[in-house]
Design goal:
Elements: H1 6-14, H2 22-36, H3 45-52, H4 70-77, H5 82-106, E1 115-117, E2 120-131, E3 138-148, H6 155-162, E4 169-173, E5 179-184, E6 188-189, E7 195-196, E8 198-203, E9 206-211, H7 212-216, E10 220-222, H8 225-240, E11 244-253, E12 270-273, E13 279-284, H9 290-296, H10 307-315, E14 320-321, E15 329-335, E16 338-344, H11 351-356, E17 360-364, E18 367-372, H12 377-388
Parallel strand pairs: 1-12
Antiparallel strand pairs: 2-3, 3-11, 4-5, 4-10, 5-8, 6-7, 8-9, 11-13, 12-13, 14-15, 15-16, 16-18, 17-18
Helix pairs in contact: 1-5, 2-5, 5-10, 10-12
């Protein structure tokens, strides 16, 4: 049986985070900064530059603004000793996995599905991006409210995937009264370069990842397998009866003439239909790209993102500007091993006003940083938006 090389292992593990994705590019940028800060255990800056021949610093010792792209980085690493390759790949994958986790939690993870089947499609707004001067065909920006049935995993399918796997645990949460199957998962690398052991909690409608130490300190407790099976099936049946509501922005119509002006992070064409005659084909526009898109096409900017959309964009890892807050952005950060939702680049005069809405501050390395409690994030962001949009 062919033994996978480190590079093949990397490609296999990347699955949704392929080499041209935002996840991979952003993780590499952070890896370079951690290397420069001497925070990686796999290799230090001097050794890496000597082994690969890549120049990463200028004459003053400052990290270059234009760093080697991922393909060149990979090509140079593949010339290193296998043990060094594996050590670097493990840390790099940890950085990618942290971004995938954030995207999964926000519901923005690209899982390769190109058709969205909705129970109901409601058009909330419609704007014309371009009208073809010859044919009159239009390119439009639609804001759609989608009513979606959750994807539910029943007990039989759960066991087909995980039965016989080592280190699984049947868990029940005393607060939420929900169940989850704990399974092994990849570790992540935090912003300080530390390895954080993680586990995955598989639930009937999806899954989340959390730190091993945090999971055992939480309200999740092991229960008997038979009791777990009964609770799992009851929860799965209950979930099948519910409908989730999601808002998306779609560029549709004559796309080819404006293709290069649309966001290039995800160039797939999606089909959204309700199975009853309504079918929309177009490109999904992520919330973080909406302001730039409207500006590029000279629109009035009337599409106002919801708190959920802002939070989702922040969790994707790129950050997003908070409307009306003087250039402040919403982004995620790993602080002391836990994920935080942070307001960055805020104006000093806005600090107390933001704290009055539920934001809390913390002094880290002599700098006051502002964070939003995750369990009340949408509520607090909505309160902030209510004041900035007056």
């Amino acid at each position: 049986m062919h033994e996978l090389t480190p590079y093949e292992q990397l490609l296999k593990r990347l699955h949704v985070a392929h080499l041209e994705s935002d996840y991979a590019r952003e993780a590499l940028t952070q890896w370079y900064h951690l290397l420069h800060g001497n925070k990686l255990s796999s290799v230090n800056m001097e050794s890496f530059q000597a082994m690969t021949g890549l120049k990463l610093r200028d004459e003053d010792g400052t990290l270059l603004e234009k760093l080697p792209p991922i393909q060149r980085w990979l090509n140079r690493i593949l010339a290193l000793r296998i043990a060094t390759q594996n050590a670097i790949f493990d840390e790099y994958m940890g950085l990618i996995q942290a971004r995938i986790d954030a995207a999964r939690e926000a519901g923005t993870l690209d899982v390769g599905v190109e058709t969205i089947r909705a129970e109901q499609i409601i058009t909330r707004s419609e704007q014309t991006l371009r009208t073809d001067p010859v044919t009159g065909a239009e390119t439009r920006l639609l804001r759609l409210e989608l009513h979606l049935r959750p994807r539910v995993m029943h007990w039989k399918r759960l066991m087909q995937i995980w039965d016989g796997t080592r280190e699984i645990a049947y868990l029940w949460n005393s607060r939420s009264k929900r169940v989850a199957l704990k399974v092994p998962s990849w570790s992540i690398t935090d912003e300080e370069g530390r390895i954080v052991p993680m586990c995955q909690l598989v639930r009937p409608t999806g899954g989340t990842r959390m730190q091993e130490i945090a999971m055992w300190a939480s309200l999740w407790k092991e229960i008997d397998r038979d009791e777990f099976q009964q609770l799992w099936e009851a929860e799965a049946i209950d979930a099948e009866a519910k409908v989730d509501i999601e808002t998306v922005n779609v560029a549709t119509g004559l796309l080819l003439p404006v293709w290069h002006r649309l966001p290039q992070d995800d160039v797939r064409v999606w089909r959204i239909d309700d199975g009853q005659g309504i079918s929309i084909i177009g490109r999904l526009i992520p919330p973080a790209a909406m302001a730039e898109l409207q500006s590029a096409f000279g629109l009035d900017g009337t599409v106002q993102l919801t708190a959920a959309e802002l939070s989702a964009a922040a969790h994707k890892g790129t950050g997003i500007a908070i409307p009306g807050l003087g250039g402040a952005t919403l982004a995620t950060a790993l602080v002391n091993g836990s994920r935080r939702l942070e307001i960055r680049n805020y104006r000093p005069e806005d600090r107390e006003r933001l704290k009055a809405h539920g934001v809390f501050s913390e002094v880290i390395q002599y700098k006051t940083r502002l964070f939003i409690p995750l369990d009340r994030s949408n509520e607090i962001i909505e309160a902030i938006l209510a004041t900035t949009r007056v």
